[in-house]
Amino acid sequence: DPVYLNGQYLPLADAGISPLDRGFLYGDGVYEVIPVYSRQAFRIDEHLQRLQATLAGIHMTNPLAVDDWKTVIFKLINAAPWDDQSIYLQVTRGADNKRDHAFPSPPVAPTAFAFASPLVTTPAETRATGVAAITVPDLRWGRCDLKVISLLANVLARQQAVEAGCAEALLIRDGLLKEGAASNIFVVKDGVLLAPPKTQLMLPGITYDVILELAESRGQPLEIREIAETELRAADEVWMTSSTKEVLAITTLDGQPVGSGRPGPVGERMWQWYQDFKNTVMRKG
Ligand code: PMP
């Protein structure tokens, strides 16, 4: 199945990028990951809006119009053999003929890349037990709201989690829970769902927005506010959310049980609401 690169569809083996591409040299680019269920891209408009916001945030023009992105995504989905997929999009500031941190002047053509892969879902057994996580200091920069490909701090945090036998690293900055290395984090205390606010120190997750919408529409008590590390440790439930993880309970944190040590009722309910919502949206098309 083909990948998309700069206006062309071609086999991955034939998709070449210059070693002077600024994505390679500086991590100077942006990305998106869009889940596809039954060959329909979920929340595609929201993902493309976030792509646009991130591009604006790094002073780049979008190389494709929204409808052109949709065509690319549609073609990749239909050329791929799987019903459930993950579509990856990346745009970088392109390849200059010299190495200089400042933007190429005059600008060079951006690099736009996209490909489909099978959606990796969480097995029911893992969902039933929940996963383990660690906390780590948040060493990222000050614009975590932008979905940029410079992911070294996230990479190191996630590797630390893996080496500790854990599924995720929760990032703590100034005593506050911000998010996970590749997920947003929610906390439940005494039946109230707590969500960290959208600031420049957190990625505005597409799944995060769905969770807030579901909580609000279904009467789940919700507080959007900063969560102290101490509150995280005293939580009844902690969950991670992302386009590929959906809603996944964290039942062990730094080796200690979270609440009962098992996935809790609020998270279970939210997972079910999320499935219902997904199925409704996908049926409507
Ligand atoms: N935060 C970070 C740092 C992430 O990398 C991700 C996954 N892309 C998320 C949150 C969750 O975002 P979404 O729900 O849009 O997948």
Give a quick rundown of the structure.
This protein is an alpha+beta fold and 285 residues long. It has helices at 22-26, 44-57, 66-79, 124-129, 152-163, 206-217, 229-233, 265-284; strands at 3-5, 8-10, 29-37, 40-41, 85-92, 111-118, 131-137, 168-173, 176-180, 184-189, 192-195, 222-224, 227-228, 237-242, 246-253, 256-257.
Describe this structure in words.
- The protein has 285 residues and is of the alpha+beta class.
- The longest helix has 20 residues, at 265-284.
- β15 (246-253) and β16 (256-257) form a beta hairpin.
- It has helices at 22-26, 44-57, 66-79, 124-129, 152-163, 206-217, 229-233, 265-284, and strands at residues 3-5, 8-10, 29-37, 40-41, 85-92, 111-118, 131-137, 168-173, 176-180, 184-189, 192-195, 222-224, 227-228, 237-242, 246-253, 256-257.
- It has 2 domains: 3-118, D-amino Acid Aminotransferase, Chain A, domain 1 (2-Layer Sandwich); 124-284, D-amino Acid Aminotransferase, Chain A, domain 2 (Alpha-Beta Barrel).
- Strands 7, 8, 9, 10, 11, 12, 13, 14, 15 and 16 form a 10-stranded mixed beta sheet that branches.
- Bound molecules: 4'-deoxy-4'-aminopyridoxal-5'-phosphate.
- 4'-deoxy-4'-aminopyridoxal-5'-phosphate is lined by residues 33, 154, 179, 182-184, 203, 205-208, 241-243.
What is the general shape? Answer: globular
Question: Separation of termini?
Answer: 24 Å
Number of domains: 2
The CATH architecture category of the largest domain equals Alpha-Beta Barrel
CATH superfamily membership of the largest domain: D-amino Acid Aminotransferase, subunit A, domain 2
Question: What integer value in Å does the Rg equal?
Answer: 19 Å
Number of helices: 8
What portion of residues is helical?
Answer: 25-40%
Pairing-aware structural class of the strands and helices?
Answer: alpha+beta
Q: At the first level of CATH, what is the class of the largest domain?
A: Alpha Beta
Bound small molecules, deduplicated: 4'-deoxy-4'-aminopyridoxal-5'-phosphate
Order of helices and strands: EEHEEHHEEHEHEEEEHEEHEEEH
What value does the average pLDDT take?
A: 97
Query: What percentage of the residues does DSSP assign to strands (E)?
Result: 25-35%
- Low-confidence runs of at least 5 consecutive residues: none
